[in-house]
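Entry 14. Structure prediction run on the chain below.
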Amino acid sequence: MATRSLGAAIVAFAGVGARRSGHLEKWVSGAGGFFGILGIVLVSQATLGLGASTGLVASMGASAVLLFAVPHGPLSQPWAVFGGHMISAFIGITCVKLIPQSLLCDAVAVGAAIGAMYYLRCTHPPGGATALTAAAGGDALHSLGYQYLLTPVLLNVLIILLVAVLFNYPFRWRRYPAAWAHDTSPPDQRTETELYSREELTRAILAANPSLSHKHSDVHEICQLARTDRRDIPIAAHDIRLHAYYCNGEFGAPWQVRQVIADTASGATPGEGNLTYRVVAGQDQRAVGTSSRGEFAEWARYEVTPNENSWRRVESCGDGDARVPPLDTKRRAS
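Output returned:
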C-alpha cells in the first residue's frame, strides 16, 4: 500500500497524464507531423532553392506537435500559429538591430515575444523559439534582416497551416481549425427541459480542458453523461425494494443514502403502504425512520450499491429487476 501511494505521488508530481489515447490517434498525429515538415522542406527547395537547414525554422517542429497532436487546443489555432511566429520573428530581428550585447538581446527577444503574444491573444509556445532563433541565429541569418519574416518564417507558417487543414480534414473529429470539427453522432434535438446544446457544452468543456481537444469522442461522452443525468426517470413507488439502497442525489449536507429495512405494504395496493429505512451514509447517519412508499419515492433519486468505501449508481436494464452499476462513482460514505 505504501509503495503504491509513493508511486502515485511520484506520478502526480511528475505530471504524468492518466488519460491514454488510442493507437489510431497516435499514428495519425505522427503522420501529420511528418507531412507537415516534409511539405515545408519540399516547397522551400522547389520555390526558393533553400535546403532543409536554411529553409526550415526549427520551431516548426514544436508547432507540428500542437497542430497534429492537439489540433483543437487554443494554442494550435490559426491566429495563434500565424501571429505567434510572425510577431516573435519581428521582435527577434528588431532586438538584433537595437541591442548589440548578444546575451541581453536573446533574453529580451524571448521575453518581449511572450508579452506581445499575450497582448495580441496569439500565444503559441514555439513562437518563443522563433524569436530566439532570429536573435541568436548567427551572421548568416542576421544578414537577412526583415527578409527573415518572409523566407523562411512566413513560408513555413503558411505551409504547415495548409497541411494541417488538408491532413486533418478526412477525420471528422480532428478537422482543423477547431471551428470545423464535427461530431460523428446525430445532432441533438434540444427539448424544453434542456438548458444547453451539445455544441455549447463542447465549447465550454474544451475551454476548461484543452487536453481533451484531440479526442472529440471523449467530449461527446461527457455531454451524453450530462444529458442522461439531467433526464433521470423518477423511481416509481412500487419499484422500491426491500434491503435496497437509495440516494437523494443532493450535494453537500443534505446528501443521504438510505437502506429499506422493513416493508409493511403486505396486503396493500401495489405502490402503497409504509416502509422503514435506515440512514447508512450522509446526514443523520444511523437514524431510522418510517415513511409511505410514495414519500420515499419522491425523496429517492436513484438506487445505489456499496462499492468498498463509496457508492455506485445502479441503472435498470429494462428487464424486470435486472440492474447494473454504471461507471460513475458517487460520493463516499461519511
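Residues 183-230 form one domain.
Filed with the rest of this week's runs.
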